[in-house]
Amino acid sequence: MSDSSSGYRGRRAKVIATLGPASRDPDTIADLFEAGADVFRLNFSHGTHEDHAKSVKAIRDIEKKCGRPITILMDLQGPKLRVGPFKEGRVILQPGAKFRLDLDPALGDVNRVSLPHPEIFAALKPGAALLIDDGHLRLKVLDCGRDFAITEVIIAGGISDRKGVNVPDVTLPIPAMTDKDKADLQFGLSQGVDWVALSFVQRPEDVAEVRAIVKGRAGIVAKLEKPSALEHLDAIVDIADAVMVARGDLGVEMPMEQVPILQKRIIRSCRKRGKPVIVATQMLDSMIKSPMPTRAEASDVATAVYDGADAVMLSAETASGQFPVRAVAAMHRIIYQVESDEHYFDMMEASRKTPEHSSPAAITAGARQIAHTLEAAAVVTFTSSGSTTLRAAQERPNVPILCITPSITAGRRLGLVWGVYSVVGDFIHSVDDIGDVAVAAAVKSGIGKEGQALVITAGMPFGKVGSTNMVRVVWIGGETGTQ
C-alpha cells in the first residue's frame, strides 16, 4: 500500500479535513497532511480571522516544503435562524401543547418565545413544520401572520436559549449571504483560498450572487442542505463549480431514510455534468471520542467512494475530536481498500455517462480507453485552466490523472478532484517538450516506472481554455508517438 505522504497517495477519492481547536496548530496540520489530508477546510462558523490566517500560513508553508499544491476550502456560515432566550434558560414542551413564536423580544416561557426573523413569518403557511435544535423538537403551524405563528407541539422535549430553527417546507426569502459571510468571504479571498462553500443554497440565484463577488478568484461549492435546493438540483449543479452533500442539515429537514437516496441522486447529477462532489457530515463521527471508527461508518465512507464521489469530508472528527490524525489515516485506509477492490472500476465503468458531442469530450474518452488498453501508468493532462483535467476526471479512468499546469491556482483547485495529482511549473515551451516533461513528472511523483505508457491529452495552442484537441502516447524510457 502506498504511504499517504507528500507524493502520490495511491488513491483517487480525496480526504477533506476540517481544522479547529484540536488541529489548527502547524505541527498537527503537517501530521494531517502526512496522514492523507488532501484538502483543508476552514469553517467560518467558528474561529477568528486571525485563527484562519494562521492556518492558511501553516498550509502554505507545508506546500513550499513538499513542492506540490495543497487545497484550501473556506466554508461560509450562512444564515443562522434561532429562537430568542427564555426566562429560565430552558423549558419543557409537552405533546399537543400550543406554543407561540413571535417578534416580541420579551424573554420566553412555556407558552411562547421570540423568533426574531420576520422573513420566516413572511413565508410560513398553516401546516408547515418548524424544527428546533436539529429536529429534536418539531412544531406544526396552526395559524400565522406577519409577526407570529401559533404552533402545536408534535415532537415534545426541551427547548433552551437560542436553539437553531429549520423550516423545511418553504423557500425562505433570505439572501444567500449575511453581512458576516460577506466580510468572511472578502477575508478568505484576500488569503488566497481555493474554494468557497456556500451554505443553505436554495436556488441557482444564490450561487450566482456569490459568483458575482468572487469573480473567478476561487471555485464555488454549493452546499445542498435544504429540500428546496433539490427542486432545482440540476440547475444548481450547472451553475456551481462543485457540490457538497451536506447530510447534517439535510437529514434534519428531510426524513432520514431519504438521505441515502438523495446522496446518490446528487452524486449522479454531478457525475453527469463533470462537477466535483463532496460527501460530508458524520462520516467517522465516533472518532470524535474513539480511536477507531465503527464498521457502519467504514461502510458509509465506502458507499460514497463506490458511488464515485470526488471527496469525503471530516468535520468535528478533525476540528474538535480527540484523534484528528487517526481519523484522517482511517479515512485514507478505507478509500484505498475500496479502490483496490477488483469490482470498483467495474462500478465506475457501469456508471459512466455517454460523452457529450464535442471534440474535447471525444478525445478525453478516447484517452481513457487507450490508457485501459495499454495498461498505462497514467493519463497525463496539460492544462492552464483545469478544464482538460476535469474532463479526464469525469471519465473516471482506471489509472491516475497526472495534471501538469503552469498555474498554481489551477493546481490547488484541482486538489479536490477525483484521481488528480497536480504538478505545477512552467515546463512547456513547445509541443515537442510534452513527452519528456510527462515522463519526468510521472517518475518523480512515483506514478510511473520504466517501460510503462503515459497517455497525454492537451489543448493546442497551449493556454487556450477548453481546447483539448490532442492525445499522445509516450513510453517511460522509450519512444513517443502521436495518436
Tag the structure with descriptive keywords.
single chain, 483 residues, alpha/beta, TIM Barrel, M1 Pyruvate Kinase, Domain 3, Pyruvate Kinase, Chain: A, domain 1, 3 domains, six-stranded mixed beta sheet, 22 strands, 36% helix
Task: Write a concise synopsis of the structure shown.
By secondary structure, the protein is of the alpha/beta class. It contains 17 helices and 22 strands.
Write up this protein.
The protein is α/β, with parallel strands linked by helices. It has three domains: 14-78 and 176-340, Phosphoenolpyruvate-binding domains (TIM Barrel, Alpha-Beta Barrel), CATH 3.20.20; 90-166, M1 Pyruvate Kinase, Domain 3, CATH 2.40.33.10; 359-482, Pyruvate kinase, C-terminal domain (Pyruvate Kinase, Chain: A, domain 1, 3-Layer(aba) Sandwich). Helices cover 36% and strands 23% of the residues. It has 17 helices and 22 strands. It has helices spanning 26-35, 49-66, 118-123, 179-191, 204-214, 227-230, 233-239, 247-253, 259-273, 295-306, 316-319, 324-340, 344-350, 359-374, 387-394, 408-413, 434-445; strands at 14-19, 39-43, 71-75, 90-93, 98-102, 112-114, 129-132, 137-145, 148-155, 157-160, 165-166, 195-198, 219-224, 242-246, 277-280, 311-314, 378-382, 401-405, 420-424, 453-459, 468-475, 480-482. It has an eight-stranded parallel β-barrel, surrounded by six helices. Strands 6-5-9-8-7-11 form a six-stranded mixed beta sheet, covered by helices on one side. β2 (39-43), α2 and β3 form a beta-alpha-beta unit. α1 crosses α2. The longest helix is centred in the first third of the chain and has 18 residues, at 49-66. The protein is elongated. The protein starts with 13 loop residues before the first strand and ends with a strand. The mean pLDDT is 93.
